[in-house]
Amino acid sequence: MKPMGLAVTPAQLAIVTQLLQTLAPKHQAMAFGSRVRLESETASLKPHADLDIALSGPPLEWHQMFALRDAFSESDLPFRVDVSMYDELPQQWRASVAWVDLCSPVT
Question: I need a labelling partner for 85 at 20 to 30 A (CA). Which of 4, 16, 98, 101 fits?
Answer without folding.
Answer: 4
